[in-house]
Amino acid sequence: MARRLCICATILFVAFGALASDRDCTRDRAPRVIVQSGEGSSVVHAPRVLRFAQDDVEAGFSPPSKADRLKPVATFSSQAPSIEIIVVRIGADGKPMYACVDSAAAAKRFLEAPLEKINVREAREK
Amino acid sequence: MMRRAVVVIALLFAANAFAGTGRILIVNADRGGEGLNDPTPAAPVGGNPGTTLGAQRLNVFLAAAERWQSSLDLKVDILISARFAPITRDCNATSGILGFAGAVEWRHDFPGAPRSDVWYPIALANQFALTDLSPSNPDISMQFNSAIGTSTCLSSLSWYYGLDRKHGTSSDLFVVALHEIAHGLGISGTTSDTGDFFQGLPSVFDTHTLDVLAGLRWDQMSPEQRRVSMTNSGSLVWGGSNVRDAMARHLEPMVVLGVNSRDYEVGAASFGPAANRRFVAGRMVLAADAANDEGPSTTDACTAFTNASDVAGRIVLADRGTCTFVTKARNAQAAGALALVVANNVETCQPLAMGGTADDITIPAIGVKKSDGDEMKAQLAAAEVNASLRADPARLAGTNAPGGYLRLFAPCTFDPGSSTHHWDDTATPNLLMEPFVNGDLLHGLDLTLYQMLDIGWSLPPRSGRRIGKR
To answer: B196: closest CA among A77, A67, A101?
Structure first.
């Protein structure tokens, strides 16, 4: 009985899957990327994590420790334990040197380091 | 038996029904008239039809989102809260922040979680749970700096809003957005600089982070072992099988310098011909030039060679120091050298990569570690040395060994925060998720897509494995 059920289900599974994955049969025909205004949006309001991140970067690179600032909102969830920051320095030759770091402290170090200490190939001219 | 079969079938149906139905939604979090709503008129550029600054910025975000959306099987919508606002703190003429992003929330032990006690970014957790576990929040947040290019913030720099890679010296917003969204989708982690896991649990990224020297993944290590592993340059790798299987289609063979019977790893130069484009072989000689104000050492190649007749037709070894790498290469080329090898003058864990710009250099130039250069000099002092500069087909650029793994960025000089969530910068060609967002990047997802598969994302229905190279 179980075997018969499995065979029938497999046939239905394949047919249903083909239908579901057909672009013409998905649940909407609208562009798959849409834009919603943050102002007055009924879906998502100004995200507090964005404000948290903004505060991190704007408020002098002295955020509290991760453990302090990351209060779990539920037993199994945690608010933004990581942030990736893209920083840039202009080299002696006028070319930009980019780096992606994962803390405000690392961003500060990159921005304040002597150019020759920056571990970007283009920074080393001699 | 019967009940189990029904449960399995129900789960399969549920997953199948959701296949490919999700979207990536950009949530415009800017205020009216600012950032993504900036009404300043702008001429369409590089395939971006927007006629205002705000529209062009939004179009780039949409294009980046579309790239990820079309490359992954999304079962639940992903909401990206996006802003394009000034980040003026610590921004001056020569330095500043381009932007930042991250997963808004992380979850573990949610319904459908493939592994217990592992953190997943909320966007990925939602895919496994087949529902939005946090419907009142976005999944990813990102902000970019709209102050760039103004008189007080990186005035010489600007964003490029085109979609055709013709960004010149401007920052290609499309590439930066692709990179940052990838972090939000899970190319990120929760491990602190001290090696501690957040609340004692690894992220899914950590479960694929492998230290081949220790023979352990990060989730198998103690915090102290992880702290040490963060600087285990060359030995910290990505253990996921999808990336490993796809590497040969994306990476070029590694360039090695063979000296007598030993092969040395080399660093590339940003000028001159690529060292992997030609095979160069010949005797190696040490540079000799005058010790003067332009270069106090007789082996620094800062002035015209005094042993030009020996150098002609050979591979010349010179020391780093005083003058630019381009100057050394010019002098070597003028002496008729086949190639230039520059030995670092300080010990580092990685071969010397050399910067500089020149259109007139026609010989390959490569750098080696100080200890390797010292070995070569010792051999040169004892006997004739034969060398070859070649691409090793058995080893891919950026991997730890023949048939090995792709390295993660783990500089041996500890720089907290900059490591491990990116590919090592020895990968060739440059990859989207290297820590230094390179100007030569194409607009593809390269090996990052396979990294996504390793952490649990899947390809869209019918796409199979036919993914174009870069």
So the answer is: A67
Distance from B257 to chain A by nearest Cα, in Å? 19
Closest residue in A to B121 (Cα–Cα): A80
Q: How far apart are CA B397 and CA B254, in angstroms?
A: 4
Q: Give the mutation candidate from B27, B176, B350, B424 for the A interface (greatest A CB count, under 10 A).
A: B27
| Residue numbers in B near A54 (CB within 8 A) | 85, 87, 143
DSSP B303-370: S-BTTHHHHTTSEEEEE--SS-HHHHHHHHHHTT-SEEEEE-SS--SSPPPB----SS--S-EEEE-H
In whole numbers, what is the pLDDT of chain B averaged over residues?
89
A1 or B299, which is more confident? B299
Res B436: pLDDT: 75
Q: Could you tell me the pLDDT band of residue B190, with boundaries at 50, 70 and 90?
A: confident
- What ipTM does this complex have? 0.82
In terms of Cα–Cα distance, which of B133, B123, B125 is closest to B79? B123
Chain A residues whose CB is inside 8 A of the B415 CB are 106, 109, 119
B252 or B465, greater pLDDT: B252
Residues B172/B176/B179/B182 CA torsion (nearest 10 deg) = -120
Would you say residue B32 has pLDDT above 50? yes
**pLDDT computed for residue B259 by the predictor:** 94
Q: What pTM, to 2 d.p., does this model score?
A: 0.81
Which residues 62-91 of chain A have a CB within 8 Å of chain B?
66-67, 70, 72-73, 76-90
Rounded Cα distance between A78 and B119, Å, is 9
A118 interfacial to chain B (CB closer than 8 Å): no
User: In this complex, which of B2, B58, B106 lies closest to A2 when CB atoms are compared?
Assistant: B2
Instruction: Provide the pLDDT for residue A98.
Output: 83
Residues of chain A positioned with their CB less than 8 A from the CB of B136: 44
Higher pLDDT, A9 or B50: B50
Distance CA B52, CA B44 (A): 8
